[in-house]
Amino acid sequence: MERPLHEDVEPLGFLLGTWRGHGKGSYPTIDSFEYDEEITFSHVGKPFLAYSQRTTHPVKGFPMHAETGYWRGVGDGRIEIVLVHPTGIAEIQEGTVRGTTIDVVTTSVSRTSTAKEVNALERTFSLDGDVLRYEVRMGAVGLPVTPHLAAELRRVDPA
Amino acid sequence: MERPLHEDVEPLGFLLGTWRGHGKGSYPTIDSFEYDEEITFSHVGKPFLAYSQRTTHPVKGFPMHAETGYWRGVGDGRIEIVLVHPTGIAEIQEGTVRGTTIDVVTTSVSRTSTAKEVNALERTFSLDGDVLRYEVRMGAVGLPVTPHLAAELRRVDPA
Question: Which of A24, A85, A105, B62 is most buried, judged by most C-beta within 10 A?
Fold first, then answer.
């Protein structure tokens, strides 16, 4: 059953649907890499969007990264994100929604016993025309917050 | 493309597929409630299962709770779970897989600024014949770990 978008997440409504595109990653401790990506935002009428993301190798097609979580509209242009990585990382992010630009920074990163050390992630999402761009900056394995990922996606399926 | 199950999650292979059933919830601070539930476990050939769960009102059908995350097989009968709730809660759970029984306890709960105080969650999953049962015990809003949820589900769709 289709339910109306909750008013608390109306500022995030521009994200709804499925997006596909391409990204590039780098970090001082690893080789640079590229990836294809699909992101989906959906809702059930409650004050959050469900978020999931998968990346695959652009040539060989095998799965690379994935994330899943929830984006919460909490009023006053504020957003809270809770998401997890299959590498054993849980992130809490908080920040702002201004028009179609979202800026969030880590307020908490927690890890399983066997996960790598990740301390901070900053994410910027912005919709420009029909192109959704994001950047992720990461502080991990003893390094300060450093550019890590950048991607551009286009909506392939409305919500 | 179908990929073989990663050997590190073979002990969790009995969970793969989609499960549906019914559960009951209670907590000292709230009215008791019942719910219908669907849980899905899937894999992409990497050493984790993707987990998602949704509950709905058993009579009126509206969405109630949801969770999403990853279950990591890390060898020696150990499991690590990272999962998030749309209420702004991120859980790290660690524990054991013995046959078809999984016991995990919280090693970390993190919360967004507006989330309710939840400090501990203990979960037991066990497959008995074709019935998957789980119990969740929770410590929240100042209370010690207390029974919270119990449900029984049956597999409706293999992996």
Answer: A85
CB contact at 8 A, A138 and A25? no
The pLDDT of residue A159 is 65
Domain annotation covers residue B36: yes
User: Tell me, what CATH number does B127's domain have?
Assistant: 2.40.128.20
- The predicted pLDDT at position A2 comes to 80
Residues of A in contact with B107 (CB under 8 A): 112-113
Segment A81-97, tens digit of pLDDT = 999 999 999 999 999 99
pLDDT, tens digit (0-9, with 9 covering 90-100), for B62-102: 999 999 999 999 999 999 999 999 999 999 999 999 999 99
Which of A6, A112, A118, A121 has the most B C-beta neighbours within 10 Å, making it the best mutation to test the interface with B?
A112
C-alpha B79/C-alpha A63 separation (Å) is 22
Residue B143 within a domain: yes
Among A47, A62, A51, CA closest to A17 = A51
CB contact under 8 A, A90 and B113: no
Cβ atoms of residues B124 and B134 within 8 Å: yes
Burial letters B53-79, b for 16+ CB under 10 A, else e: bbbbeeeeeebbbbbbbbbbbbeeebb
B82·A89 Cβ contact <8 A: yes
Query: Would you call A14 helix, strand, or coil by DSSP?
Result: helix
Contacts with B, A 16-35, CB within 8 Å: none
Per the structure, the complete domain to which residue A138 belongs is given by 7-157
Per the structure, how many domains does chain B have?
1
Cross-chain Cβ contact A114/B80 below 8 Å: yes
Residue B118 lies in a domain: yes
> Please, which residues bridge with residue A121 across strands?
A138
Using 50, 70 and 90 to split pLDDT, how confident is the model at B7?
very high
Q: Is residue A145 part of a domain?
A: yes
